């Protein structure tokens, strides 16, 4: 006949004030009716254990889940104080093996629906964070730090126990004094978390103050091996000179509501060229980043960035597959993509408020997508070649993948010639719209309404307009046509691209469709491509683009269509 197995607890159950639940009650509710394997006997649906005077669970026999049929059953484990008041919900647990120490179980849900951490729970058993951490067993645990806690560190706090960490239950101020929280390689499941308590704004009330010290406030991982499953939440770490958080060879880090402030970059993520730094996730955080060493899959969702020095808020030196989405930046340079072929496949969507420099893109970076919205008057310096396939989309200026319509105009009223270059269509291309290696394409059509004189049509850059006539400027494409059949539309389609790496030197060509003679059943008899003149337009500045027609007052002409496309 099978026998139930034993449970107990080697550590007491304590509350957030480190008071043991003396003579409290643990209850175990079976998830469903189940039979004991080999007997057909029905297992009890509830088992209760009364804690002793120290808050420990005495040895008690209970049918484990691996002794029950059907398989997959669990127990809901809950804690009550000696007066029967609910204290904690440890969520569904599975009892298996020869015996179970309840104080080593990993709770699933704590009261209030908050994800909990491994037992045993220790609240500042010493007079310092370091002493409390040292008191944890090697199996891990949670140090519950009371509200309004203050301490000045006297040494580094080395967090080298798996599944162990600090939870700040309210406001706290830790003066780092040049020392660090250190999570060495191989220490999986470490955490530093806090709660937003007593604040009128949704900002962390736990401050880790690194001040003007040189070095790093929180060091996670190192070059000797990999570290994973790290959790950070709801605290501020401030370093006016040093680095707030350094992450090296880490797989699986989740941060929520972190404020890492002042000297940029505040977070340095280094793959150390080992390929095991990935899935680094920041949610609603206030940080700036440097990504290097082949780190990949770094994600930042929402939140805020600002740089108080010359460094970029997002600086990717060597990294790929990173996503920054919905980021708000209002100070400093937004993005730097280094001149490295290992900077690729990154997607950045940024809302900014008038930065001077939006982005600098190195020549070897490739297949990256940057999307800027908001006040986007800043500059983009794209040193990459067109074949590198970097796409920069700027609200109101630049498009996304492929082509984007910059301007479109339809039928324009008939003009009577005056022997001057009369403006049919005009459009001012904003500064920095056409980046290095990028281009524009212009489509324009017209009708020669009346008369048979030769009309000269031009596509021009620059100059000024007075009284409807263009003065100055440089003709990019010039064609003349005679009015032999005034019902046919004629057109020019022109393409110009900046040379690689510059915005002030171009090459291009245009395609013409003209009617210069009456040919039966042929609308346009002169068709072909011609090279454009290369006007050396400086697209770093705003540029006036015009289409003009010039003929004596014996003839009239009408604009039929005008379109300007940006080619990315």
Characterize the structure shown.
- This protein is mostly beta strands and 568 residues long.
- It has 4 domains: 5-103, Immunoglobulin-like, CATH 2.60.40; 117-301, no CATH class; 305-401, no CATH class; 405-567, Sandwich (Jelly Rolls), CATH 2.60.120.
- It has 1 helix and 55 strands.
- The strands form 11 sheets. Strands 12, 13, 16, 19, 22, 25, 28, 31, 32, 35, 38, 40 and 42 form a 13-stranded parallel beta sheet that branches.
- A hairpin with a 7-residue loop joins strand 51 and strand 52 (506-514).
- The N and C termini lie far apart (77 Å).
Short account of what is shown:
With 568 residues, the chain is an all-beta fold.
Q: How many distinct folded domains?
A: 4
* Proportion in β-strands: over 45%
Give average pLDDT, whole number: 84
Count the DSSP helices. Answer: 1
Helix content: under 10%
List the helices and strands and how they pair.
Layout: E1 5-8, E2 25-30, E3 35-36, E4 46-50, E5 60-62, E6 68-69, E7 75-80, E8 86-93, E9 99-101, E10 109-110, E11 114-115, E12 121-122, H1 129-135, E13 141-145, E14 149-152, E15 157-158, E16 164-168, E17 172-175, E18 181-183, E19 191-194, E20 206-211, E21 216-220, E22 227-233, E23 236-239, E24 243-248, E25 250-256, E26 259-262, E27 267-270, E28 278-283, E29 289-292, E30 295-296, E31 298-301, E32 304-305, E33 312-316, E34 319-320, E35 323-329, E36 333-337, E37 343-344, E38 347-353, E39 357-361, E40 369-375, E41 379-382, E42 391-394, E43 403-409, E44 415-416, E45 422-429, E46 439-450, E47 454-461, E48 464-466, E49 469-471, E50 474-482, E51 489-498, E52 506-514, E53 526-531, E54 543-550, E55 556-567
Parallel strand pairs: 1-9, 12-13, 13-16, 14-17, 15-18, 16-19, 17-20, 18-21, 19-22, 20-23, 21-24, 22-25, 23-26, 24-27, 25-28, 27-29, 28-31, 29-33, 30-34, 31-35, 32-35, 33-36, 34-37, 35-38, 36-39, 38-40, 39-41, 40-42
Antiparallel strand pairs: 1-5, 2-4, 2-7, 3-6, 7-8, 10-11, 43-55, 44-55, 45-54, 46-51, 46-55, 47-50, 47-54, 48-49, 51-52, 52-53
